[in-house]
Design goal:
The structure is a homodimer. Chain A has 4 helices and 4 strands, in the order H-E-H-E-E-H-H-E. Chain A is α+β, with helices and mostly antiparallel strands. A 4-stranded antiparallel beta sheet of chain A has the order 2-3-1-4, with helices on both faces. The interface between A and B is large, with 52 and 53 residues.
């Protein structure tokens, strides 16, 4: 391996490492973060269609929206039609941008007749602990 | 910068990048993951002491237990004595190790008279979306 190639690889690794470090610092801190819990009840007959729409919406939001940091969606084992989503946005502006995004509006439109109830529970983060190495 | 130094830096960055990549793959996937929601009600008179003990327990668990991936603790804005913790463990063995760990036992002992109720809600992950770059 020659010097130039080593420098190129070193540079790429540096960029990747900095990206990682940036994300870790954003994912770990609390600051102006908006952390919310959504509690939904879904029509059981449409549960699979709902989960599919939700999955697509979450994957798109995480991929293309810089301020959407975490969207963890789970269903309750005792009642799978009950869904909870832990949402973390960088700040209130990121949240406002999210609900105006075309993929979010598409998800809302697609699922409007699947969702029997939706409750947004506002929270204050105490500690957001996640593995960083 | 000479070749040897570049190789050393490249090596360090490679190790860090691999650690990041390993963590990202662990944090993103679902697989055998245990994802649970703990719902607690705390004695309001002891809320600050409880949050302090919880913070220490979470920070220690994330730092020293390889299988404890996420512990997100929030309090409800409408009722700050109501706490929710989203917990993600690598697998059931990691969870069992966690509840046997000295720092977890210390937390349980310290907080036993602060916790008015505790409900563990078992969940199935649908999608665990988190920023990875």
């Amino acid at each position: 391996m020659n010097t130039k190639r080593v420098i190129t690889i070193g540079g790429s690794l540096l960029m990747f490492s900095l990206s990682c470090a940036l994300w870790l610092s954003r994912a770990q801190g609390i600051g102006s973060r908006v952390v919310r819990m959504a509690e939904l009840e879904i029509d059981p007959a449409q549960l699979e269609a709902y989960k599919s729409a939700l999955k697509e919406e979450i994957e798109t939001s995480i991929r293309i929206e810089p301020g959407v940091l975490i969207l963890y969606a789970v269903s309750l084992k005792e009642n799978p039609a009950h869904i909870r989503i832990l949402e973390t946005y960088a700040d209130i502006a990121a949240y406002k941008a999210h609900i105006e995004a075309p993929h979010f509006k598409r998800y809302k439109n697609l699922t409007q007749n699947m969702v029997k109830s939706l409750k947004l529970v506002e929270t204050d983060p105490i500690v957001l602990g996640a593995k960083s190495k």
